[in-house]
Every structure is written in C-alpha cells, then in structure tokens.
From TrEMBL:
GO terms for cellular component: plasma membrane. Coiled coil: none annotated. Residues 53-335 form the ABC transmembrane type-1 domain. Residues 1-25 are annotated as: Disordered. It comes from the Bacteria. It is a multi-pass membrane protein. Gene3D superfamilies: ABC transporter type 1, transmembrane domain (1.20.1560.10), P-loop containing nucleotide triphosphate hydrolases (3.40.50.300). This is ABC transporter related protein. GO terms for molecular function: ABC-type oligopeptide transporter activity; ATP binding; ATP hydrolysis activity. Residues 368-602 form the ABC transporter domain. The chain crosses the membrane at residues 49-73, 93-116.
Amino acid sequence: MTQPRNQTQSPPMPMGPRGGPRIPGEVQRARNVRGTLLRLWSYLGRQRWGLTLTCLAVVASTLLDLLGTWLLGRAIDAYILRKDVPGLARLSALLLGVYVGSSVLTWAQAFVMAGVAQRTVRDIRQDLFERMQVLPLRFFDQRAHGELMSRLTNDVENINLVLTESLTQVISSTLTGVGVVIVMLAINPVLGVVTLAIMTALSLGINRGIASRVREGFRRQQATLGRLNGIIQETISGQKVVKAYHREADKIAEFSVANTEYRHAATRAQIFAGFMGPMMNFVGNTSLAVIAGFGGWLALRGAATPGTIASFLNYARQFQRPLNSLANLYNQIQAAIAGAERVFEVIDEEPEVDSPGAAPLGRIRGEVVFEDVCFSYDGKTPVLKHINLRAAPGQTIALVGPTGAGKTTIVNLLARFYEVDSGRITLDGRDIRDIRKDDLRRQLGVVLQDTYLFAGTVMDNIRYGRLDATDEEVIAAAKLAEADQFIHRLPDGYHTMLTERGSNLSHGQRQLLAIARAVLADPSILILDEATSSVDTRTERHIQRAMLRLMEGRTSFVIAHRLSTIRDADQILVVNHGEIVERGTHEELMAMEGFYYKLYSRQFTLGIPAGAQEEESLAS
C-alpha cells in the first residue's frame, strides 16, 4: 500500500565508505559490546567444527613460528659458532620444515575460517531479511529505507570482513604476543623484562597520543564521505527533477562544498594515520637497539649468548607485529560490533503477529463494515475520526477527497497494515482482528497508483498474484486485463525482462500488468488506489474496461481523483480532514450541492485538472 500521506518521513541516512554508496558513513561504537559479542557467538557457535579446526591451526602455526625463532638462535650457538656444518645442515632442514608447516597451517586456517564466516553471515543475513518480512508497516514508516538497506548490506558486510579477515588475526596476534612473552622470559628473564618494559611503555604512549586522534579523524572522514555520497545518490535518483528545474549549477556547488569538506577531513585523518607506521617502527627499532646494546653487554658478562640475542631480535619483531595488527584492526572491529548491534536491533523488533484467538478465513461474501473507527499514525495526531461505513457484498465504494484526507488510510486499516485505535472493522460480521492476517490479505486484491514491478519477466510479475498459476492462466488474466495486446508487442513477449520498477514500460502498461496480477489472484475484495490518475484518456479507457471486468461480483473500494471513473459507484464517500463529510450515490450527492457537487462541477465545467481540483475545492 502507499505510505501514509500526512506523515513526515525520516530524512535519508548519509552514505558510507568502502567504494560505493553505503549507509551510514560514521563508525559508531556499540552501546552494549558484551551483549552484542554474545549474540555473535551464538551464530558462530553453530560452526563448532570449523572454529575448532581454525583454532587448532592458529595455535599450531603460532607454536611453529615461535619454535622457528628459537631454532635460529640454537643454530648460531650450537652449530655456527662451533663450525658444525653437518649439524647446521640438519637444523636448517628442520627450520625449513617448520616454516613450510607454518605457512600451510596459515593457509588452512584462512581457508576454513572463510567458510565459517560466510555461513555465519549467511545465517545473520537470512534472519534479518526474514524478520523484515514480518515487521509491521509502522516500523518501515518510522525509518528511512536507505538506513534499513544499510543494515542488510553495509553492517552485515562489516561483520563479514571482521570474521573473514580479522578474527584469526586477533587470535593469532594474541597467542603470538603471549607466546613471545613466555619464551623471552624463559630464555633470558633479565633481557626479557627490559625489552618488554620498553616496548610496552612506548606502545602505550603512542596509542594515547596518536591512536585516539586517528580514530576521531577517520570518524569525521567517514561522516563527510557519507554526506558526499548522499548528495551523489540523491542527485542521480532525482536527475529528471534537477534538469527540469535547471538546478545543475546548484547541485554542482553543493557537491563542491561537500567534496572540499571531505578532502579536509580525509587529509587530516590520513596525516594522523601516517604517523602510526613510523612511530610503531620507532618502537620496533628502539627495541632492537635495546636488545643489541643491553644484550651485547650481557653477552660480554657471560649472561647471554649470541644466539639468544639473535632470537630476542626476532622475538621483538614478532611481538611488535601483533601490536600493529591489533591497532590497525581496532576501527574495523568497532565498526563490525556496532553494525552487529544495529542488525540485532531489527531482528529483536516485535513482528507482525496474529491475536491469540485468530482463526482461519475461508471464502467470504465480502461485507465490510467500519464501526466508529478512529486512527492516528503517531498516537497523537488523529488521521481518521469516527469513520462509519458499510459495503454490501459486490458493492463498489468510492472514496474521494483532498490529498491527505485519509482515503488511503481507510483501505490500509482494512488490510490490517495498521491497527485501529478505537472502534472496529468487520468482514462478514467478524472482527478482522480475530482473523489471521495471511488469510485476510489473501482475500484482497490491490492495484495502486504507483505500480511496483519487480526485476524479472512480464510473466513472473503477473504470476506474483498467484505463484502456482500456470502460463495459460497468466495469459488468460492478461487478456482479461487488456494487457495481452501490448505484451505481444514487447521484444520477447511474456518473457521480456523488466528493468527496475518496470521503467522500460509506460505508466499505463504497468497499471494493466497490476490489474492482470489482481485478476490472477482472484480476490473477494478489491482495492483500487487512484489507478488511473496519471494516464492519458485513451489509456484510461483501457484501464477502466479492465477494472470493470475485475470488479464484477467483488466488493470494491475505489480511490479516485477523476470523478468520471466513479459515477456508477454504489456509494460515494467524501472524506475531508479524516471524516466522512458526505455519502451517497453520484445523483444524490449532486442533488445535495455540497462538497462533492463543487468538486464535480469545477472539474467538468471549468476544466480544472483533476489533481489540482481537490485543493482548489478546499480553498473555496
């Protein structure tokens, strides 16, 4: 159904980084890190075997790396200094085997973890998409569609990146750091304590002095990039409007300002980020100097061997790598945790559920009654006030009135896209709240003013009305909707692929396909929401004939701007400011010479366009 006419939508979220239009642009911190990590673990826990193999491979490769460094020092002390060539050859062969084994295990852990990550993200994405399908329309009205798409794409991808690329690095870095500390202290406690104290002090100092500025710099960079991408997306989507109103220069100027802001933010972020590499190198080189100087002094006093010093030099590099790795992964991990939290927020939303006593619904006669129905979208501003109406089976009820009067809201409530605040709606005498929503909606056929067609063939889009329909039934429905003739003129007929939203068809053609879809669904109640308001007179006649066939024997609710399309309605309801101000047949309303009379007279006597007619009637 169409969106509530008089509800203000949330502004679109800014676009994010990483190559394409992404939302949101700013890296956020999760509010509940522990809870989010536990939820992620509940998904990861489904891949126990993969995780176990990955962890074993990480532990084994880490131990082999540590062993290789120790063997290097052993080679110097036991064989090189003693000029034992055969022993050196044997140790070199062992050392080669150790490093080859470490490389194979590193590849294996990446291979296994890729499968673990993809299956985990698949489950998260599936749960998120499934939850979106059962959420009430009110949820979507209160959120920008781009922001929801971001959760399904950008946020899930951030989780995927961390699981695929970062999780094994975090585990490996942690194990390597712990292992290096243990081995260094075991080989030479004095040299180990001095080396670790200097490296830790310098690293902490750099993190406090630079890392916070780097994080803030990248947050600002991503935020400005989000605004920049937002302008790009908005301009491309609204290109026809931009050209129609000659606003190209304004858009260029707006883009230039945002582009400059992004350049300044990115330059500042990259300058601070550029400090990290040299400063961490400074820590590493300082550590090497300490090991060489202090270790050499210990060696001269007989408290260390040349092999020990060589091993310490390599262990210092191994200890530095995890620190660098964890520092580089910090923002990515924060973004993934925040993204996971946003995903779980949607998954935790209350779905659209039936009442406990909801019963199934068989074939219906089609009697619809509104009894003193009141409704508001936000719980404060009333949209419908004390609506009372009765549609007998097979009757056609027309709803007319100005934009925002509440016409579409009436049919939205009938379909239970929203729940009434007070009063009730009955179908064949049963309160629709006591009927399963799926059964209720299966009895409704909807043709909107803005027809939505999906990417796929013409045949697939008509079959959307009833997925088990045969090709012959689809074609028969198209013929009844007077769509068969234009479909045969398409390049591949019923197998012609439609572009996004069916943009390669005219508006009238899209409407005929929507009617064919409703014919195929064979509903008991029909809802036509301004289905002919945007087409020419000739196309309108085709659509009118198709709609008349569709409406035969069905209870129909018709929302129309062109009053000529509803002259033969059994009952016309004039809605204004959320109330039914007049009701009756066309002749009865004309005889009253009230709101409807003025509307009709001006449209057909003064020739005021239908779209503008209602507003002028209000003004008078």
